[in-house]
Design a protein that fits this description.
3-stranded mixed sheet, alpha/beta
Length: 167
């Protein structure tokens, strides 16, 4: 970096340093410069030099929000996957595709598996009254919508359900 700084001063140029993590370039080595060797440039031209901070490693996180903040800060790609879990509460992280201490390679995408909570079975509400159906759905901790429709059946009787019983 001293060579670059000295060269910039001697040639009356401007210099801007930035840094980022890079798994293939050693710490404090140049990753990128906005001009190539041999390019002709005028005085006062801004030379941008990116220096490596070395390898970025996976940390341990207390929450999904903490992970997302970290990933966004370092421009790390991540994808969210969801699965049911009887042990992990809904909205909490079940696992990450990278373990604590793993090197995050350039271009890696970290898969975050998030709990959808405990699995539940859809009750059969066909033929039930509206109030019976609501009790069963709430007991199963399911969200629901009531849709009214003309039919020959008795008023406030369930004649259809969008998810099959037992699913």
């Amino acid at each position: 970096m001293l060579e670059i700084t000295k060269w910039v001063i001697e040639n009356k140029l401007k210099l801007e340093f930035s840094n980022r993590y890079d798994d293939s370039i050693k710490t404090n080595k140049v990753i990128d410069v906005n001009y190539n060797n041999g390019d002709e440039i005028e005085e006062k031209t801004l030379i941008k030099v990116t220096i490596s901070k070395g390898k970025l490693v996976m940390l341990s996180f207390d929450s999904l929000d903490e992970f997302k903040s970290w990933a966004n800060k370092y421009n790390i790609n991540y994808e969210e996957k969801f699965e049911f879990s009887n042990e992990i509460p809904k909205g909490k992280v079940i696992k990450y595709s990278h373990k604590t201490g793993d090197t995050i390679k350039n271009g890696d995408t970290i898969a975050v598996t998030i709990s959808e909570g405990k699995k539940t079975k859809v009750p059969n509400v066909l033929g039930n009254t509206k109030s019976e159906a609501i009790k069963k759905l709430e007991k199963a901790k399911l969200n629901y919508n009531i849709v009214y429709e003309n039919s020959n059946e008795e008023k406030n009787k369930v004649i259809k359900q969008s998810l099959a019983s037992g699913s």
